[in-house]
Design a protein that fits this description.
The protein is an alpha+beta fold. The chain is 33% helix and 18% strand. It has a four-stranded antiparallel β-sheet with strand order 2-3-1-4. α2 packs across α3.
Amino acid sequence: MDSMRIPVICSMHDLDKIDCEILTLLQQDSSMSVKEIAQKVGLSATPTYERIKFMETSGIIKHYSAILDRDKIGLKLVAYCNITLKEQSGKALADFEKATAKLPEIMEVISLSGRYDYMLKIVANDITSYNEFVVSKLSNIPNIGQYHSNIVMSMPKHETSYPVKTK
């Protein structure tokens, strides 16, 4: 494994260099077999499997998924929508989070400190469908005081893998 490709910090749960290499490999291609991973990290299949199993059961590895090309599935528009709520009580925040969780167009809901209460990452086919989403779904969520949309023009960098390395 090329150590130059293993960036930042993997310090929780006393993970060692090999664990971090395994995590990096799985993030690059989660369909790799245990045998392929073992070969790349210099272990046999059984200890590699046991390390992966430990990281799955301890919650370090949450789940596996395929990363799709959103353009090829017709989702040409990404917007970040900043939300200010009228009321910030615990119930109001929980209700807002439940309402947004039900909308598949919303990819991420991020609670913020500062000027806005939340930032939503929203995908749509185009600007027309985004506008329809805002008018027919987003604006109907109770307790939204204001929303401000930022349309993504390009994504010069888009990572899905966390940087991992030992201390």
